Amino acid sequence: MAEHPTHRGRIRPAPENFLSEADIAAVKEGRRDFLRKALITASAAVAAPGLARAAEGDPNILTLPPWTTSLGQAVAAHPYGLPSQYEKGLQRRESPGLTRMPQVSVAFTPLQGLFGIITPSGLHFERHHQGWSDIDPSRHRLMVHGTDEGFVKQPKVYTMDDILRLPPVSRMHFIECGANTGMEWGNVAVPTVQYSHGMLSCSEFTGVPLRLLLEDCGVDWKKAKYVLAEGADGSSMTRTIPIELVQSDEVLVAYGQNGEMLRPENGYPLRLVVPGVQGVSWVKWLRRIEVGDQPWATKDEAIHYIDLMPDGRHRQYTSTQECKSVITTPSGGQLLLDKGFYNISGLAWSGRGKIKRVDVSTDGGVNWRPARIEGPVLSKCLTRFNIDWAWDGKPAVLQSRAVDETGYVQPAYGQLRAVRGTKSIYHNNAIQSWKVVESGEVSNVQVL
Ligand SMILES: Nc1nc2c(c(=O)[nH]1)N[C@H]1C(S)=C(S)[C@@H](COP(=O)(O)O)O[C@H]1N2
Ligand SMILES: [Mo]
Questions:
Q1: Which ligand is nearest to the CA of 284?
Q2: What is the DSSP code string of 306-367?
Q3: Is the pTM higher than 0.85?
Q4: What are the chain's domains?
Q5: What pLDDT, in 10s, does the model give residues 151-177?
Q6: Which residue's CA is the nearest one to ligand 1's atom 16?
C-alpha cells in the first residue's frame, strides 16, 4: 500500500498546539522538555492576549504576528466557507489498489481527525457502484407503486417540489457500509483507522418518513410486507426493506444532510435513510419505491452483501449493523510524542439502538475501565467516548469494547470468528486493537 505522509497524524492535544516537523524532531532527539516549554509559552500567550510566540528566532521573545498588526480578509471572500489551509491533510481517501475504477470505489472518512459525532458533509465517506452524478432536481422524480394493483390504491410520481412541501423530520444517524472493516477478516490489512473503519459517517438527515408517502398512495398495510428501493444511477441499486422498519417511522426519504441539501456524492437530491441498517440499503438518487409481499432477491442482496458462513452456506439479508466501537485517537499511523497524559477518544454505535457503555483497555484486554460517554446519546447514532490515560512509555495495546441497550457486547476477534469463520467480507464488528511501542508509534494489530 502506498504511503500517505499526512496519515502520520500526530497526536493533537488541542488545535492551537500543532507541532511543526522541527518540533517533533526535537522531541524525538530527546529534548524531552520541549512539550513543557511549549505549554509554558502557550500559557504566556493566554496570559497576555494578542501576543504569540515568534515564528522564528528565540522562542522566548514574544512578538506581534501579522494577523494582529494588519487588516484581515473581507467578509464573503469565500461565499461558501472552506476549512483552514492548515487542515488540508484531513481528506477522504481512496485505498490504493482496492478497485480498478475510481467510479466503482470507496473514499474513506478520516475518523482520526474528527471530533464529536457529526461528520462534516465534505468528509462523509463515498461508496458508488457506478459513479456519481449531480442530478438536476427539477428533472428528478420518485415513483411509488405496488407490485400489483392491491398494494397501493393510487400509484404516484413525486417531483422534488411535491416532497419538499410535506412535513419534514430531522434525525441524527450513522451510516456504515456492511463492508466496513471487511479487509480485516483474515488478518491485519490496513495501517490507519481511516481505512479500517472509515466507511462510517454520521449526519443529521432531514426528510419525509416513507410511511407518509405510502399512506399518501393508499397503501394496504395488511398486504404490504416489504418495499423495494431503487436508485437512478447506472448500477440498478435495488434493496428490499422489511415493512416493519417503514411502519416504525424510522425510514426517511431524505433530501437534507447537516442543514443543507444532500451532497451529490451522497445521493442529491434524494436518498433513503434506513437507520441501523447497512449502507447499501440507504439507496442514493432514490427514484422508485415498490410495495410487495416478498423479498425481491436482487443482485445486491442475493449475491452481494452476503456472508459466507463456516459451514459453507451463505447468509443473506443481514441488514442490522451490530454494536461496534473503535478508538480513533491514538490510532494506527499516529505517533505519541512523549510519555504522560493522553486523552483516548473514540466512537461507538449500534444498529439496534443506543450505546449503553464503552470499556477501554490499554493492556490488550486484560484490564478494562469504563470510558466517559459524551452526550448526546442517540439511537442508531454515533456516540463519542473519552478516557484519560497516562502513558508510561512502555508498550501498550489500546482497545475499546461497546455494549448497546439490548445488552449485546462487542465481540473479540476470537469470539466473532468462532461463529462466522474467516471467509466473510461483510459485517465485521470485532474489537479493534492499536499497539503502541516505546518509540511512540501506533500500529494496527489483532488480538484474539
Ligand atoms: N443508487 C445507489 N445507492 C447506493 C449506492 C450506489 O452505488 N448507488 N451505494 C450504496 C452503498 S454500498 C453504501 S455503503 C452507501 C454509501 O453512501 P455514501 O456514499 O453516501 O457514503 O450508499 C448505498 N446506496
Ligand atoms: Mo456499502
A1: 1
A2: -EE-TTSPEE----B---EEEEEES-TT-B--SSEEEEEEEEEE-TTS-EEEEEEESBTTSS
A3: yes
A4: 126-315 (3.90.420.10), 324-445 (2.60.40.650)
A5: 999 999 999 999 999 999 999 999 999
A6: 127
